[in-house]
Amino acid sequence: MELLIPRLTYDGAITLVKFQGSNHDSKEANVTYSIFVMKLLIPSLTYDSAITLVRFQGTTMIANITRLSTSYTYLPTFSPSTAHVKRPLLSFGPKASTKLRTCPAIVCKELRLSSYLLSDFGSESAQMTIDGAFSTAWLKNLQKPMGSSVLSQENGSRSSCDAFQFIAQPSSIPGCVLQLAGSSYLLRATAWELYGSAPLARVNALVYATCFADASRYTDLYQINLTLFEFSSSADVALAYVKLIQHLAVFKGYQGLGVACPTLSNEAFAALKVAEDKFLSVSKSRIQLLKLQLLHEHALHRGHLKLAQQVCDEFGVLASSVIGVDMELKTEASLRHARTLLAANQFSQATNVAHSLFCMCYKFNLQVENATVLLLLAEIHKAEYNVHSIVPPVESLPKTNLKSGNAVLGLPYALASLSYCQSFNLDLLEASVTLTLAELWLSLGSNHAKRASTLIHRALPMILGHGGLELRARAYIAEAKCYLSDPSFSVTGDPEVVLDPLRQASEELQVLENSNSASVDLLVLLVSRLDEGSSQYHELAAEAFYLMAIVFDRLGQLEEREVAAATFKKYVIALEHPEDEEDPILNGI
Amino acid sequence: METDEPQATLPFQLQFDKPVASQIKIAEWNPEKDLLAMVTEDSKILLHRFNWQRLWTISPGRGITSLCWRPDGKAIAAGLEDGTISLHDVEDDSGNVLSYEDRTSRFFPAAPRVPRMPGLVSGDTGFIDDNEDTFRELSNSSHQRFNILCSGDEDGIICFSIFGIFPIGKIVALSKDLCHLIVLCFGELVEDRVELNDKQTSRHCLVGLHCLLLDTSIFWKRAGISLCSFLNSTILWLGEAMEMDFTWNLHATCDEEIDALLRKNELHQVAQQASNIEDLIEVIRASLSIMCKQWSNAMHTFHEKFDSLSPLIIDHGLDSCPQEEFISLLGGARTSPPVHQFLVHSLGEVGLKRVAKAVQSAGKELHLIIRDHLQPAAEIIGFRTGELRGLSRWRSRYQGIGLDEKLINNATEKAGMLLIQVERLMKVLSTVVYQFQNFFAWLTKCIKLLMSEPSDQLPSFNSELVIIFLKFLYDQDPVRQLLELSEIDHSIEIDLDTMQRVRELVQFGGFSDTEFLRRTLAKEFEQLESSFKEAFLMPFTTISKKILCEDLLPLFPIPSWPISASLKVPTSISYFKDASPDASTCQTFQLGLVDYISFRIPDESFSDMPNSIGIARGFMHDLSSVKKGYTSLEAVLLRVPDGYHCVDLSLYKESQIVLLLNGTTSTSESPGNAQMMIVQASDLPFVSVLRSANPNPWKMHGLKDSGVHLQMENEKVRCIPHSVTAPLAVSASRGVACVFAARKRALVYILEEDEDEVSDVE
């Protein structure tokens, strides 16, 4: 059963629950059912975190902490509410009958229930403690310079500060309770990633990492199922760190400030390395997965398409070959595959992959993935239109309408994706779909510039607040393009309106991938060549500088124009001469 | 209900005549609905329906100096004499007008409220609680309309607050040495509201910012002019309704104002988030103080009982402390006599139970507060700052109103740290409560053993935890120290592992301030608060700088200084479509909307023009028209008929002015008589006021020769068989006037219907 669960799909889970439920209400059925409920609560909650949570529930039952069980087991009783999708959008929008079991406010309320755990564990936990466990801990601590001072004689002087020493003591809360309480923060972090609140996602992961990461330290104080517990504990901690690293990669770029660890200039990768060391034994697969994800993103940004493809293949290998199992991994693998193809301008292949992926997601009711894939399809159509002019010259937009049919084709996908996002409260994804939609409108001609800019302005607060660097840069560029292609807009009148977003875009891109300051370490290992490749990053940067050069030209500021043009040229050259080479690091993976 | 059947010739029909409980000081009709809000002499606010049914009464407990409805009629603001403003919601808002969505309500359950001290019921707080409730509702419901509350206080400071709650700007227009002012605010140079302060010189302020161009000019002290700032909590709402009507007009105004118009939406969003965050900060503050209080109470109960042990030990001549005695008891040594005496006699089983219960219930209460108030509040603050951060990154829009990304980022970090602190508090609290429980369980067992009673049914305990308790908790209180803000900077000892982990987390995007765990929760909250203060101060100062003072029109002087509070000068300001075609230059202005400022001129001001009423119009465009070579400011002086003096006046619709006149001859025996009169102001012979030519600042004085004598016979007049007192409440939308007579009577007259009748007669 344990082994089965991670590989179940929703449908599988439902069937299993029904089956189990009809036979006997065993603990396993409970567990499975709870996972199912969790999944419904938060669409695309990762299986691991759901399982973690539910496994804790199991632990709780063992530990006979009834309160939490009651709070969590009444989850299934939520009345189906909210978000009834009114208009079935085209053939591939969400089904008309799609209903969300819960609204986000209820999810939030439920997650808050976890705080009952800490307040109510009291009376029942006494029998879980092993006499003598604390003494062992004290003795151990005696050897440490700053450790617990329960047994030390010298601090007879009782200043008021002493009270705070108490906080440094090993906590007497049973580890399993702590874990269970902590896991709600992981769930929160996941929920906020989906709902779109970057600061809350990060803070919740941080709360877990700060307050609960040591929960396993105290496990030996209590009589519980140690192996199960320890495993889940460190898997959770690993998950928290994975979330933090992902956040770093998206918001701080692959390289960055280097303040925290001066030797490694690449923050996300450096953090990854530390995490790898930290969780060497435990959850190799999770860290491994993260590593592949980061590598793939990075390779795409830099234009190392071969490397990207290799990483994709690695992904595919990780998943089980059985149908309906490891769905998350499989979707991610083919999503990344389609992205790679898109980056390589192989549109028809990318479309094929995306289409079959969509069919699969639709079949297995993977709603969030549905929205993502639809967005990808829209983007493929957008890119297909744009491809022959890497940077669509603004003035010539109406003239190059030859291929605009493709952009029109992209619209329904974008709209369908939008309606998925709206029904599932996926606000950040919605903002990025809105951006794509605006880009599609923009590519249909300058008379749509107004509409596009309204769309962008609507999504901008969301994108700027919660979106990653790349998304932000894209939004800024699109905003500038809107102004530039609006015939009634005059650059000379207010150049800052255009220049400011462009400048910000180039800043964000700079942070995302500051190629010049790349240092020797891990990054060099990971990505052997800098400044090359036909990458998204180069494309965006080239676009930003191209537009900047145009604006400066119109303003008559020739010097600035030359600088911008030179930078543009640099990026275009990099774009046109991708030098993919075998990357030594891949062999090591 | 009509006590007085109107004669056919009487212009205004009396609707009814009702007694009122006490003398009315201020009365205002709701601009949208048939509601009349009144302030009594004893500072209660009454809300009546048009049929005089009373809806509710509030008494804020302090003197009320002014009263003002929000333009949508859904909230009322009362200015109190201590300078605060209280807002009261008349009904719940509904409907969503703005396109900007505040996501918070979608993702979170209702925001937590300020917790209340349980078991505290005090009778006299009833009203205050009610106020707080309305206030909170008001600030939590996301406001659909954009309203700015403009308030002035004694020190001559005019404040502008969005929703009446979030301050966005302030003009320290007048230091004490400047005289009081008329504040004239108008949006986009079109909308114009004036709050007239009292007496003496008057000052005009035009306000600028998001559709309000407020321009304040200061009348400075000149020879012979005394200074006083008398704007005592006068308030007014600047509404959205008008400004929307006149948006098209904007092109006539300068670029800056167009800019300002665009800022409106941004300001609304920022104010919405910020005012909610400020509310939540209050929730946290209240939670902390209540938790602290409750915990100290419980600890007090504990120490009260257990402190008697040390004297006992000393009495028995032992050289030790309670902890040591307990440890030796735990260790299985012989029970020492003092401990025996203490446990069996002074504490006893009952006493122990009582203490245990006190501690446990305090622990429960604290957990409840954390769960229902503290943690949700901290979480929502985190979310809202995240939203603000998104806005602050949109530099081209939000930098202009002073939203600073760095400051908001800083606040975001602090909000995150607070969440961690709350989590830690929860852990510490549950540990402490558990330890207490364990300790008490052990003591119960000991007592049973000492009393030789069976003890096998008792809950088990952990002896190691008892040791920890005696070592760290017996005479110390980590919970309180986390909660209480003390002057001495305690730094919390953190074990090495945690410290290392926090440092390591920096690489993973953790807080760069790794020392935050050493701070107490109270300290952290203090820092959070100040970081928010700093962040919100930026918009405030940025906007304040943009509020300019543009024009100044002295109306009349007041000879005595300081002005006695009893001296009230009736004033009224309103805007009318310029109906009269001959209104010369005014008409060239957009929409032909003209401001009318009417006021009674105190007799002391100009000795040679007694019993006069001044009306000025076209002031708001005057400055711009002067540049174009002419002046739009016109004024007229009305002379009240002999035998009467003006009690109050109010501008009514279609450029009419309603005057309330009292007969001067009434004696104390006779009920007195009064007149209500409507004058068509636009028909009056206005005279252009040339401002540069005349060195005399008192332009009104120049009109003394051209004053119009009002004749009772020529105007629409209704005789009121009582002597009347000051507030005259006129409702333009409903066409009624409420007059308060001296003997605690309220009379409502219908102004509207009567006009028809009169015209029929004519």
TrEMBL record, chain A:
Superkingdom is: Eukaryota
Recite the UniProt keywords alphabetically: Cell cycle, Cell division, Mitosis, Ubl conjugation pathway
InterPro entries noted in UniProt: Apc5
Protein's UniProt keywords contain Cell cycle: yes
On whether Cell cycle is a keyword of this UniProt record, the answer is yes
* Biological process, per Gene Ontology: anaphase-promoting complex-dependent catabolic process; cell division; positive regulation of mitotic metaphase/anaphase transition; protein K11-linked ubiquitination
Q: Which GO terms describe its cellular component?
A: anaphase-promoting complex
Family matches, as PANTHER family: ANAPHASE-PROMOTING COMPLEX SUBUNIT 5
By what name is this protein known?
Anaphase-promoting complex subunit 5
Source organism of the structure: Tetracentron sinense (Spur-leaf)
UniProtKB/TrEMBL annotation, chain B:
**PANTHER family the UniProt entry points to:** ANAPHASE PROMOTING COMPLEX SUBUNIT 4 APC4, ANAPHASE-PROMOTING COMPLEX SUBUNIT 4
Pfam families with a match to the protein in the record? ANAPC4 (PF12896), ANAPC4_WD40 (PF12894)
- Residue ranges of domain Anaphase-promoting complex subunit 4 long in the record: 263-453
SUPFAM superfamilies in the record:
WD40 repeat-like
Q: Where is the Anaphase-promoting complex subunit 4-like WD40 domain?
A: 28-92
Carries keyword Cell cycle? yes
Q: Which GO terms describe its biological process?
A: anaphase-promoting complex-dependent catabolic process; cell division; protein K11-linked ubiquitination
- Source organism: Tetracentron sinense (Spur-leaf)
GO CC, sorted alphabetically, is: anaphase-promoting complex; nuclear periphery
Q: Would you tell me the protein name for this molecule?
A: Anaphase-promoting complex subunit 4
Keyword list, A-Z: Cell cycle, Cell division, Mitosis, Ubl conjugation pathway
